[in-house]
Amino acid sequence: MSYISLNNVGFSYEGKTVLSDIHFSVEKGDYLCIVGENGAGKSTLLKGLLGLKKASEGSIVFGDGLKANEIGYLPQQTESQKDFPASCYEVVESGRLNKLSFFPFYRKEDKKRVEDAMEYLKVTDLKKSCFRDLSGGQRQRVLLARALCASEKLLVVDEPVAGLDPLAQKELYEMLDKLNKEKGMTIIMVSHDVKEVVQRAKTILHLDRTQRFFGSAEDYLSSKWGKLLVKEEENA
Fold first, then answer.
1. pTM surpassing 0.70?
2. Ranges for the ABC transporter domain (predicted)?
3. Residues 6 or more apart from 167 whose CB is under 8 A from it?
4. How do beta strands 16-26 and 4-13 pair?
5. Could you tell me where the DSSP H helices lie in 94-223?
6. What is the pLDDT of residue 102?
7. What is the DSSP letter of 135?
8. Bridge pairing between strands 16-26 and 31-35
9. Any bridge partners for residue 59, and if so which?
10. pLDDT tens digits, residue range 131-158?
11. 3-class secondary structure, 234
């Protein structure tokens, strides 16, 4: 059974449909990239997958042992995040909040997960640093470590390299590749960086207020939707 299956899913705001006829599945170990123009419905779909937005039609089904609270989330950077007055350790530790039981205290296993995630993402040396004092690339690595604390099964990633310099972009993409290939994590990523993601993703979903393409990255490049989006990116 697939990790996530969407069956004719649609979303609406105040009775107005913004996304319709979405039907695809995500398999364990997949690396899915969601592409499309601004306003195509990518953010709405992510909210639906994260349980933050209820589908107005169709169904989203979790399977193969995946639970709705076992999804790590790396959001797009915002100005409010940049000014967050907490230590990097506290930020990463907050990824374990959904695992706390009746007693609101972090356990030894939670602290071990935090330490392991920070070591894996190479941010252990930043544990006492204030999050708002970090560079953009460092912030994204810390937030990725937080997402890894929340789940070792599936990561949902929203425009992860937006605003980063070329070196930081390359490093973050390589970290996501490593999580997918070494840890077998399933990744669902929204990105405008089409040329880069088609080299890394296994599967592409193209949205334009509905589902225009779903298939392999190789097939996407030869499709009319892939050719169109790549051409627009080159002319941007």
1. yes
2. 4-234
3. 137
4. antiparallel
5. 108-120, 136-150, 166-182, 194-200, 217-221
6. 58
7. -
8. unpaired
9. 7
10. 989 999 999 999 999 999 999 899 999 9
11. helix
Q: Which two tokens stand for residue 88?
A: 């990097």
Q: What is the pLDDT of residues 77-133, one digit of tens each?
A: 776 666 778 999 999 998 888 766 656 777 888 889 999 999 999 999 999 999 989
Using an 8 Å Cβ cutoff, are 25 and 5 in contact?
yes
Nearest to 31 by CA among 8, 3, 55, 51: 3
Which residues, in sequence order, are bridge partners of residue 130? 87
Which residue, 85, 156, 152, 145, is CA-closest to 115? 145
Smallest CA-to-CA distance from 158 within 43, 44, 67, 41 is with 43
C-alpha to C-alpha distance for 159 and 117, rounded to whole angstroms: 21
Q: Where are the domains of the chain?
A: 1-71+154-235, 77-150
- CA dist 48 → 19, 45, 52, 57, 178 (Å): 11, 5, 6, 11, 26
3-state secondary structure of 95: helix
Top-tier CATH class for 1-71+154-235: alpha beta
What is the percentage of the chain residues whose pLDDT exceeds 90?
72
